[in-house]
Known about the structure:
The protein has a four-stranded antiparallel β-sheet with strand order 2-3-5-4. It has a two-stranded antiparallel sheet with strand order 1-6. 35% of the residues lie in helices and 18% in strands. The chain has helices at 10-20, 35-45, 65-81, 91-99, 122-139, 158-163; strands spanning 25-28, 57-63, 106-112, 146-150, 171-179, 181-184. The radius of gyration is 19 Å and the shape is globular. The chain has a domain at 28-62 and 102-182: NADH Oxidase (3-Layer(aba) Sandwich). With 204 residues, it is an alpha+beta fold. The protein contains six helices and six strands. Bound molecules: flavin mononucleotide. Flavin mononucleotide binds at residues 23-24, 148-152, 185, 188.
Amino acid sequence: MSTTPQTTDAAASAVLEAVLNRRSPAAFSREQPARAQIEQLIQAAVRAPNHYRNEPWRFFVLTGPAREQLGEVFAESLKAKLASPDAPENAAALERERAKPLRAPVVIAVAAVKTDNPKALPDEDLSATAAAVENMLTVAPALGLGAFWRTGDAASDERVKAFFGLRPEDRIVAFVYVGYPEVMGKLTPRRDVSETTTWLGWNE
Ligand SMILES: Cc1cc2nc3c(=O)[nH]c(=O)nc-3n(C[C@H](O)[C@H](O)[C@H](O)COP(=O)(O)O)c2cc1C
């Protein structure tokens, strides 16, 4: 009997469908998901593979006024990069930055922290945390939700890290915007995999 995993199992097929149809919502409704739904997203996230079982991921789940506080920190971090932060022409950009976390009812900041494991490789822990984020994106529709992965300059800003109690050596991998999709995004195109795949040792 073949030991090759089969994809005929209904659950496995559903996973394949979920991955092939994954897309980012274009807009979220204001309705706040239940905490239990967010917990399920995080349960899925932590099933990601990770070397030495380091579990380098940390999740910060913001809703309501916590998103406004994050927006203030985003604006402060942009302000610090501007040559003349109080100039009127910068006001709109700062306001846009302040409003960013309000684009979804829940924002989950996901960080890869430096663990105590002396064998830990930062790149591996970063990759593991990125895989955890992708799990959240993949399972969101099964919970009736949508999820959008964002980072931007704010993710590497020390003020933003400090807001979450993170250290300079920790990395923010994602701000996952979560909610009920009001407008679903279209499936974005990808190059044909033949352009990005090299087959080695194959006879067919
Ligand atoms: C690490 C990472 C960071 C990203 N940061 C942003 C971002 O800051 N802003 C943004 O509009 N899209 C960002 N994206 C891209 C979107 O999440 C999304 O994948 C893209 O808009 C394509 O849409 P799709 O997910 O529906 O294919 C990021 C993606 C990744 C993997």
